[in-house]
Amino acid sequence: MVASRETFEDGTTMVSEDSHDENVHIPVMADEVVALLGGSRDPKTLDGWIVDATLGAGGHSALLLERFPRVRVLGTDQDPSILVRARERLEPFQARVQLERCRHSELADRITETLGAPPVGFLADLGASSLQLDLAERGFSFQQDGPLDMRMDPDRKRTAAEIVNRWDEEDLADLFYHEGGEGRSRRIAAEIVRARRRAPFRRTGALADLVERTVGGGRGRIHPATRVFQALRRAVNEEGEELHAALQAAQDTLAEGGILAVIAFHSGEDGEVKRFLKEGAREGHWEVLTKKPLRPTRGEERSNPRARSARLRGARRLRGADPNSPVRTFAGGHRHEKGDEKGGAS
Predict the structure, then answer these.
(1) Last residue of a domain, one of 207, 236, 265
(2) What does pTM read for this prediction?
């Protein structure tokens, strides 16, 4: 069967839901992630918890569990349907895996409530999951018509339809420009406001068609509506705020010497990670391990199109907890505070 593909500005590639193309579920930069999180530590003796803060289909977690036989994984995701899929994939490692549903903004508390000691590794693979993009009914796609939803967490109240139909023209234009990099944002926002006076937007197809008519139907590498859809997705899911919460959770909970690895697909996200680590290094919280982001090999880009925009950054947690962060007591009784960050699995 020939798959229908659409490629988003942040590098995410979606195939139609009737396709059996497994490439969308291959973990990005898997070898580089495993090497970075392992560092110079012996794979056979590395002991402790690794937090997979963006579990998805569980591909990265499965590889980490295979590579490090004494490591356990706390896998988290905000989407309950994804957790079901990941649980199936990680079934062979059942005794060494704990899965939790939570947003990044809830992550620091969930880590300390769940684990017996600070984790030794922390992974975040940012952006939307292909498992979400595959389903037209989730409302992410501009090529498959569906409800204008885009919520990664179905319990979120605000949908993309609410933003499109209620935000004023200036706010929409700013959103498309700043979160999507859309240079024709003001023209698109004006047309949306004119069109919604006649009838509100309910479906992804109607919005994609309007954007295409507004900016012209010429198809380059990406669909004309790509940047608008990306901006809406980021706003619905508060991706900027959630990213900062994830980075802060890593800083607040990682053990001394613990490794943070972050894969970004959006240049703005990568910039945020770079700034966070640079500031943290200046304050003595981090040793940056990647002066420039690692990029996928050409072979991986050919075999897994989603990897093309990936940027991987890593850092090692240094001694000295953030004095402005709350003292955290882990489930095993380990207190994580300034001057006391050593920890492993309980």
Answers:
(1) 236
(2) 0.85
